[in-house]
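Dear support,

I submitted the protein below through the web form. The confirmation email said the job was done, but the results page showed an empty box. After a refresh the structure appeared. I'm attaching both so you can tell me whether what I see now is the final result or a partial one.
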Amino acid sequence: MRGFFYGWYLKCQSDSQTLAVIPAIHQTGKKRACSVQLITDNNAWTVSFPADTFRRLKGNIFIEKNRCGKSGIRLAINTPELNVRGKLDFGPFSPLKYDIMGPFSLVHFLECRHSVWSMRHPVCGTVYINNRKYSFQNAWGYWEGDRGRSFPKEYVWTQCLFQGGSLMLSVADIPLAGFHFNGVICVVLWQGREYRLATYLGARAVRIRNGMVRIIQGNLELEARLIERAESPLKAPAMGDMVRTIHESAACRARYRFRKGNRTLFAFETDRASFEYEYSSAILSGNKIIGQRGKI
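What the results page shows now:
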C-alpha cells in the first residue's frame, strides 16, 4: 500500500511562551500509526499511539484522550518521559478567502498538499508539560495542516503572529511531471486585509540564501530573514513513514519586511517567529542556482 500522512499544526503564542501541537496519522506499507508532537520555545517531544486511537469527527482530531479542533486543544499524555495535561480554548478564526493551494488543490498526486484554516485567533488556557506551566491569556493562535506522502526534500517555512497581523510563507522544491520548481505559497494578514502571494498568481522566489528568503509578485515583495535559531527536532514523513528529522525554531529571532510598490507596509524584528529552514544544498540568487552551501 502506498504511504501517506495527514496532520495538523496548531500553534499558540503569548508574549513569552510558544506551544505547537501536531496530531497526525501516517502509514507506509502495512505499518500504520498516529502521533502527537509538542514543540515549545526550547524543546520538543514525540509520542506514538496505535492507529486505531485516531479519529476525525466533526472538525476534530482525537488521539486517545487528546483532542484538537475548532473549539481548542485538550491534552492528556502520560508516559515515563512525558506528562502533559491541560486545555486551550480558541476564539473566532480568521480563515482564508479560498484554498491556499489555489488550482493546485485539484492536483491530487502532489507529494505534499497544504491547508490553512486560521491565520489568527484568540487562545486562552493553560497546559502543564512535565510540571512546567504554559499559560496563554489574551494570546493568539494559528492553524494549518499537511497531507500527502512526503515533506518536500528542501523547503523553507515561516510563520509569525504579530501586532495587527499574521503571516505564513513557504517556498519548497516541488517535483512535478519529471521536473522540479520552487513553489511559493504565502499569506499576509495585515490590518484586516489578506494579501496572497503564490506561484499560481505569479509569485517567485528571487533569493534563498543563508537563512533568508525573498519573494516577489507584481508590486508585492516579502522578505523573511532567520537571525538566530532556537531549533528542536521534529519527525516528518518520507513516503508516509515518520523517519525524517527536521528542525523547527518555534520561537526564534527573525526579521520581516513587506512592501507594496515603493511603500513599506511593515518591517520588524521579533523573537517570536517560527522558522524551518531546510534548504541545505542549493542557494538561489536572482533566478539562478549559484552554488552549494559551504562551497561558495
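Response: this is the final, complete result; the empty box was a page-load delay. The chain is about 0% helix and 70% strand.
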